[in-house]
Structure formats: C-alpha cells, structure tokens
Amino acid sequence: MDPLVEGQVQLGEEESAHCARVLRLGVGGEVLLTDGRGTLASGFLTATEGKRVGVEVTRCGMLPRRQGQRTLLAVAPTKNADRMEWLVEKATEIGCGAIVPLLCERSERGRINGERLKRVSMAALKQSQGAYLPHIYPMMAFQEFVMGVDAIESSIADVESGAVLRAVAHCGEGPRNDLRDVLRAAGNRPLTILVGPEGDFSAGEIALALENGFLPVSLGEARLRTETAALVSVALAGT
Amino acid sequence: MDPLVEGQVQLGEEESAHCARVLRLGVGGEVLLTDGRGTLASGFLTATEGKRVGVEVTRCGMLPRRQGQRTLLAVAPTKNADRMEWLVEKATEIGCGAIVPLLCERSERGRINGERLKRVSMAALKQSQGAYLPHIYPMMAFQEFVMGVDAIESSIADVESGAVLRAVAHCGEGPRNDLRDVLRAAGNRPLTILVGPEGDFSAGEIALALENGFLPVSLGEARLRTETAALVSVALAGT
Asked: Nearest residue of B to residue A69 by CA position?
C-alpha cells in the first residue's frame, strides 16, 4: 500500500481483493485503513476496477499507543498450532506490542509458521479496527531472548527499556507474587511477560530470568494451559 | 459415578473408557477424580476389565471455591459455535461459577448445543485438574435473566446475593467505568457480568440492567469480539 496520507492512495493487491470480494464494496463504499504502526485513516473507494483499488482518504491521524499495546509477550509455542493461532488472534484484539515465540528446554514445538501467524494477526487487527499490529518475531532461544530483551523492548515504540516491568510466569518452587498485584503496584509501566511450555520453564531458565531482572509471578491457583496463561497475562496488562 | 469417598468406587462408563483408551492406564495407574462440585480425590485403578473401571480412592477432600469460581457469566452466544465452545473451555480453565447463554434483541444465535458445551467444559475441567464445573444454563431471555439473577447467584454455592458485584459491559452511550477499576474498588466481591452480542445490547436492555443494579462498565478502548470480552471479564475477576 502507498503511505497513509490524506488524498488518493492505492491499496495493495491483497487488500484490494478483500474490499471487492469479501467486503463487496463498490465505488463510494466507506473504508477504514491502518498501516499497523498507529495510523488510522478513513475514506471511500474511488475505483474498484483492475487489481488495485483506489481510495480517497478523507481523514488520517496517528493514535497514541495504549498501555496494553506496549505488552511484550514471549511464549513457548503450543504443540497444537491452532492454539497458537488463537492466542495471536486474541492478543491482537486485546492489544499487544510484540510476540516472541520462545524455544525452551521443554518446548514441544521448535518451529512456527510465522507467515500464517502474521496473517491471523492482520485479520484480527482489521476486525477489531486496531491501529497497532503486534510484531511477531521469529522463534528465539530462551537465553537469547532474555539476554537481548532490552533491544526488543526499545523496538516497541515509546517503550523505554528500564521502565518496563519484566515478569516470568511459572508454576515451580520459590516465592511468586500474583501478576494482578504486581501490575497494580507497578502503576503505568508496560509489561514484558515470559510464559513457558506445558511442562513449564526449567529451574535453570527461571534462574536465568531472575538474574536478568524478571520478577517471578503466578497467574493464580488455576492450572492454565500455555495459551490461556499467555492470554490472561495480556488481558491483565490492559487493552 | 459413585459418590466420591475414600475406599472403592466405580467410574461411569464414559470415564472408564477415558481411563482405558485415552489415558491408557492399567491396574495401579494413578488418577485424580472430581465430582465438579468441589470434591477432589486421588487414587489408583484396581480393575480395568468390564465396562466400569474400579478405583481405590486413597485421598478425598473438599476444595474451597476460589474467587474466580464464583463468577457468573451471562453472554450472548456467538454466531460461530466454535467461538462459544472456545469461550466455555477457557472460562472453565480460568475458573467460572456458571455460564448463562443470553437471548438478546440483537442476538445472532437463538439456540445452543448445551450438551456439547457441557462436554467441552468437562474436558477442560479434567485437563486443568479443577474441582468446580461451571453450570451451563439453558438459553435464557435477557429480561428473564436480569429479573431472576438473585436466584442464579445464590445457586452458586457460598455466593450471597446482594454481596455480588453486578456489571453490564457495553460500548454504547453513557458513563462507564473500566471493569479493572470497578473490581479493584469492590475488593473481594464475586462478579456477575453481562456481555452482549456483536451488535451490542440495545439501549432498552442496558436501561433494564441499570435499573436492576448492574453497573455500566467498559473493558478498555479495544473493540473486542463477544467471546474475547467475556474471557477478559472472567480473567479480570480472578482464577
């Protein structure tokens, strides 16, 4: 797509097809557009012939990034790919800054279909009329993520590294506070949260996270699946 | 199944088949059992022949109902049945006292498969090793639910009607507080939450809810699908 500005723009082929075939819009049909980086625009179709649909953008503005849209979710992908796709859909709807698939010692899945997850996320963003598309990273080893988390946090616009509340959710030994209480005490700080595979993080992984400033947290007494724990974290961090 | 007490019990046919074919347990295999009403028991298989498996229950106790397990979720079923099943699965995992499918003015679905939803919920309860199965009510008209909510609240064990925080989530006109803030101010009170269909509650439905002591709430600025709004509410209310 062209850059989002007021005036005439042309949609890309995929979005053009979406307007014509799915939304069944004709000339004059109203559309909302976003670049996934905060810009939300509205306008109407001016041409629907050919492969690329034309839009007259009448209003265009930048939305501020909300609290929940600063959340960095690092999660071990579920064995069942559907559950991961569902998580990406829901996290996008609720609001999330970035999603990092983690390769852990006890991971049940070492590969993800990043393109597919991105498509799921884009569909959810359109459906929910959001303006910030979570960046979905390639699979990253646990250690690599924890050591490089500063850079990833800074890549989420207006998140200052150091100002971020970092937490590792686990069910193992050792003291843990409820994420609800931790978030309440942290006030307006964005959240980076680690969620492990079905078999949980290893003791070594938890120790590494704690050494790197992650607080050990619990999501309550219920025994949650990976994707449920991830979603509850995103929901608690805000929309 | 027999009542859950220490000593010998026989599982029902369905659970017996689950032990034998899915869990592939033989004599001596360890099992956790629940009656879905708070009793959690552990034991081992003593006989696997015939249609009904025998279990020697060695420990048996009643778990207290946690905060989230007192939540009463009244929600308009989604057009897509999968999304409703997904919601029931996740609400059961996180914890929920009862689920009432609501028939609203703008409902897109007037019937549900209650038996199917119950099976989904039981599977989720087993998977998450929970002890309280949310009661899934038959479809109920909005007005009928709002006028009779006292009785349903009291049917969730140890929920005192009057002590319950009642809220209606909507996206319409009028003042609304964020459910996060409302729950925080309410302290330890259980939640009854109304979540509408994709087209939202009608103005008349909202007015009726407010007249009956429901507080108008928002779930944040994101535009959430019905099942997402319901799940965020359940997550915020606690596990």
From this structure: B222
Distance CA B36, CA B15 (A): 14
Q: How far is A179 from A165, CA to CA, in rounded Å?
A: 11
**Beta-carbon pairs below 8 A across chains A and B:** 81
Q: Do the bridges between strand B135-136 and strand B54-62 make them parallel or antiparallel, or are there none, so unpaired?
A: unpaired
ipTM: 0.91
Q: A220 to chain B: which residues are within 8 Å by CB?
A: 66, 68, 94-95, 238-239
Query: Considering all CA atoms of chain A, what is the largest pairwise distance in Å, rounded to the nearest integer?
Result: 63
Q: For chain A, count helices (H), then strands (E).
A: 8, 12
Q: What residue ranges define each of the domains in chain B, with the CATH number in brackets?
A: 7-62 (2.40.240.20), 67-237 (3.40.1280.10)
- Which of these, A93, A92, A1, A6, lies nearest to A41 by C-alpha position? A6
- Give the residue numbers in B contacting A (CB under 8 Å), as ranges: 66, 68, 86, 90, 93-95, 127-130, 180, 184, 219-225, 228, 231-232, 235-236, 238-239
- Report the gap between the CA of A8 and the closest CA in chain B (Å): 28
pLDDT in tens, A71-88: 999 999 999 999 999 999
Q: How far apart are the first and last CA of chain A?
A: 27
pLDDT tens digits along B157-207: 777 767 899 999 999 888 999 999 999 999 889 999 999 999 999 999 999
A contact set with B (CB within 8 A):
66, 68, 86, 90, 93-95, 127-130, 180, 184, 219-225, 228, 231-232, 235-236, 238-239
